Amino acid sequence: MTGIEASRRATYLRTCRLLAVLSSAAALLYLKWLFFDARPDNLVLFYLLVVAEVFNIAQAAGFWFTIWRQTWTEPPTPDFAASSETVDIFITVAGEPTDIVERTLHGVVRIRHPRASVWLLDDGHSPEIEAMARRHGVGYLTRPDRRGAKAGNINEALKRTNGDYIVIFDADHVPAPEFLQRTMGAFDGERVSFVQTPQYYGNRTENRVAAGAYEQQEFFYGPIMRGRNALGAVFSCGTNVVFRRAALDEVGGMPEDSITEDMRVSLELLRAGWRSVYVPVVLAQGIGPVDVGGYFSQQLRWARGGLEILLRRRPFFRGMQPGAMFQYAFSFAYWFTGLAYAAYLVLPFAYLLFGLRPVQAPNQYPVYFLPYILVTLTTMAYASDFTLTFRALWFTLASFPVHLWALGSALWGRTARFVVTPKTAGAASLRPVLVHVAVVLALAAAIVVGSAMRGLTPAVLNNVAFAMGHVLIVQGFVRYALRPERSHGDDATGEPSDAV
Amino acid sequence: MTPPTRRMPSDSWLLAAILAAGFVLRVATIDTRGLWLDEAVSLDQASRTLAGTIATQVGGVHPPLFHILMHFWIQLVGTGEVALRSFALLFGMAAIAAAWWAGRVLLSRRAGLLAAGIIALSPYHIWYSQEARMYTMMLFFALLSLGWLGLAIRHGTPGRWTAYFAVTLLGLYTHYFFAFLVIGEVLYFVVFEVFGRLGRLKREGRRRTTWSRPWRVFSDVPLLAPWLVAMAALAVALGAWVTYAVVLPQFGGDSPLIGSITSSGLGYGQLPPSFAVRFNDVVLMVVELTLGFHPSPVMFGLVATWPLIIYLMLLLLGRISPLRRETVMLVWCSSGMVLVWAIGQWQGQVLASRYLMALSAPVVLLAARLLDRIPARARMAIAVAGVALALVGWADQSFDQANMMRYADREAIAYVASNQRPGDVIVYEPFYTDVLFAYYLPKNLVAYEFPQRGVLGDARNSKGQIGQDLTRVTVGSRRVWLVLGFQDIAALRGDAYNTTQWLQRNGFVRALDRPMSNVEVLRFDAAGGAAAAAGGTP
Asked: What is the pLDDT of residue A495?
């Protein structure tokens, strides 16, 4: 991740704001046309389009609101010798390969702090992990069951340790030695509950799926988290994070009834009046998902967790400031992106196969839609400091089957299981991408059939262009699934990288 | 043993190959279409005395440089189609070399070659290398202007600033729309080189310029002084001509340039300017810039694929950073396109892709930059696809008679000339296609322009006037040939309607209707002679 240098930040923020204003204006013009000037042709398709567009514009507006105020927290380096506070560093293990865990352990034991205790929390009950702990002289904790998955694992460890601060690393996240020196200075006020740092995938250069996931993360840990930092709406991401034990104790530890315990505990802490801080410096390198199945597994867990909070918990926003409330709402609503994208997918099918379209006089549509979409994309690109990639976008859009599955599961109350994201690639398989294959084939068929039935009229070509664009977006996972790569993070070194 | 490295052709050979390809493509089809109106007008204006040629541009819609140079050129090479167009061809070839140079000095060695290749193969640029107009001149000077501006900004010497001033002035004297490129250059310089630098200096605590001491900006921004000198010189040099040729005639009541901006365009019968959303016209310009000129169904079908613009922008995400200073400059310099498009929503006639020729220079360089930065395999795939597409586009553009930009006046006049009989009357509309008839009609034949001009130069286009003039012209004739051009202009269609209605009401029947590309040839036979004519030659 590349950061925004301090000398550029004022200009960067001004430009973000200008672009946010332009984007808002373009969006309002588009909405005005959609609501008041557009003449519906097929009502079902029209309202499908309206709902999808309103959703996306709301998401975009949330983004513009987020980037309006971004802050770069640069905590001072604390003088550990001047205090007596202790730190427990947890590495949560649940069956990951031992070489990966050992690499992480190598990095953790190098963290500079005079009173840090390292603990391997092994839910996999592995003798190798236990032996590893002994070899390195670190603590080894296990428990008789796996109640509550990762949250339960951490809670059990909380009972058996007593550090003033808790640091949590996933088994594959190798920290830099200065991790605590660059984070603990952020606990400047008594009500700071945790300090989160970015997730960074060291295997992004060797694996396309990890690269795509990393590019998504870069956008999230860049302008979005910096904006959430300014609004006091930072949430924990489950790793590379430092908690104040007193805060966790006050909210009863990690919630064990959610597969996204990190998001849940962030909400509980916020409602209890605690603050959270984001330090936009990469201080640990992890391993991103290495195949499509692993990526979908990760996304499904996150989506399920977020949607369960939104749909099945008591109103999540009670006790929150409006800014934070909107931020969390946008985070949860993100998982409806799949539904909106599915709506867009329907439109070219409808015209090519059945001659149905959402609006009459479709020539007017691009006049309002194009400026909105182009300005919005420009805003996103600029806010990301031009690091946003097409792959990051299609990773999001083409995950629509996962989002839809998660939505269905959350609505119908299917129990979600905590599944560790695999760190090694599986064999080539189309199983995770059957929906994508079907969509691509269906789009291709619609293009051929529609062109044959209706001729190459401008209306047909217009829908063919949209259909080709969807093929471009959806086919990526099919390609990746057919040719998985084997790398699993050989280059995770734990060296510090650039700030975001 | 290390494998022998592949020797890549040197840049000189590659450039030579590109120039050769560009030359072949331009020359091979240079006469597959006849002159169209603008070319014939240029010839007419350049054929006068030098003072006369200059006088045609005073109060006209173009600056004089092209016409002055054409004046001398046609004395050298003659006025045949190929000879006329060889001037544009020369500048078209020079533009390929200029693109190589500008790409090389601004971006990289490979970008220079890519830019040259794009212009060499681009159907759009080939088309205008085959048209006896000033557009390739405009392109040539635009590329030089960008190159010299970039060099002057990078390391400003008096020589570089002088070169920038000279080529930019030549560009402005070639076509007024060159100003849109200059606007972009000015915007870039002010925003980035002046205010950007002042901002950086302020952040570093080194800025000396203050509101109370504004003159210190010249020490804070050393480039500002020479740039201002260049701008002032441009303003003076161009201002002299604009004052003489544009402003003063307005006070005399006759400035077609100003009239074309504020009222009906150029008096050609177009509608007065009006605000309208002309999205399709804007996208059509983009299609023409990228793929050249083709039949209307093809062009408007391509316009309908506008969603691909979004996907192109998506594909560019993540590939355009970090932005070099030169890239930022090129982006700003191409921003004039947005201004043209905006103006076009009011004054629709500016939405012609040829007016974007100067602005195509930074766009080509940006495309070259983008190609330069993508992985080699992708670049090769795009290059192969691009060359194939360009060649197909060139072939269709050159040979497809249904090309919407093809004006078949040559073919129409030749058809009439070869099929007319003694006693036939030849009439053409609109009147300003007289230059085409003067060029193509055999000297032994006479053709009458319609609507005719009155004593005071007014158009006699009322029904009654057309009737009077047709009565006089067609008296005793059994056959009347009517050649109609520019029927896409509503006012002209009205005149043509009156003409054909008069003929049909006065004993003539339509015996022939031969539509050609943007021209229609009709023949009306006197009612008594229709039966005799039907069995003979058309």
From this structure: 39
Question: Which residues in B lie closer than 8 A to residue A377 (C-beta atoms)?
Answer: 310, 313-314, 317
Q: In this model, does residue B182 exceed pLDDT 50?
A: yes
Q: Measured between CB atoms, which of A367, A392, A466 is closest to B279?
A: A367
- Cβ contact A367–B308 (<8 Å): no
Work out the average pLDDT over B402-414.
Answer: 94
* CA separation for the pair B288, B257 (Å, rounded): 25
**Closest listed residue to residue A194, CA positions, set A301, A284, A268:** A268
Residue A322's pLDDT band, with cuts at 50, 70 and 90, is confident
How far apart are alpha carbons A487 and B31 in whole angstroms?
60
pLDDT digits (tens, 9 = 90+) for A210-237: 999 999 999 999 999 999 999 888 989 9
Tens of pLDDT, residue by residue over B123-133, are 999 999 999 99
Q: Among A158-167, A285-294, B141-150, B486-495, name the one with the lowest average pLDDT.
A: B486-495
Residue B462 has pLDDT above 50, yes or no: yes
Provide the 8-state DSSP code for A446. H
Q: pTM for this one?
A: 0.86
To test the contact with chain B by mutation, choose from A5, A208, A341, A464 the residue with the greatest count of B C-beta atoms within 10 A, namely A464
pLDDT at A23: 97
Structural domains in chain A, sorted by start: 6-70+333-498 (no CATH), 80-291 (3.90.550.10)
The minimal CB distance from A456 to the residues B301, B319, B320 is found for B301
Residues from chain B contacting residue A462 (CB–CB below 8 Å): 304-307
Candidates A389, A391, A472; nearest CB to B311:
A472
Residue A10 sits at the chain B interface (C-beta within 8 Å):
yes
Question: Which ipTM score applies to this complex?
Answer: 0.85
Q: Which residues pair with A120 in a beta bridge?
A: A91, A140
Query: Residue B339 in contact with residue B359, Cβ under 8 Å?
Result: no
Residues in chain B with CB shorter than 8 Å from the CB of A388 are 317-318
Mutate one of A462, A471, A473, A498 to test the B interface: name it (highest B CB count within 10 A). Answer: A462
Contacts A458 to B, Cβ<8 Å: 300-301, 303-304
- Paired with B459 in beta bridges are B453
Q: How close does chain B come to A241, measured CA to CA in Å?
A: 28
Interface contact flag, B306 A385, Cβ < 8 Å: no
Instruction: Give the per-residue SS3 of B301-336.
Output: HHHCCCHHHHHHHHHHCCCCCCCCHHHHHHHHHCCH
Mean pLDDT of A67-76: 93
Residue of chain B whose Cα is closest to the Cα of A467:
B307
Tokens representing A449 are 């059939």
Q: Which ranges constitute the DSSP H helices of A81-191?
A: 98-108, 127-136, 149-160
Which of B304, B317, B320 has its CB closest to that of A462?
A: B304
**Best mutation site among B198, B317, B345 for testing chain A: the one with the most A CBs within 10 Å?**
B317
Average pLDDT estimate for B296-320: 89
Show the tokens assigned to A271: 């409602």
- Burial of B438 by CB count in 10 Å (0-12 exposed, 13-18 middle, 19+ buried)? middle
Those residues with Cβ within 8 angstroms of residue A415's Cβ, 6 or more apart along the chain or in another chain:
none
**What is the mean pLDDT of the segment spanning B411-416?**
96
Residue B316 pLDDT level (bands cut at 50, 70, 90): confident
Average pLDDT over residues A428-441: 90
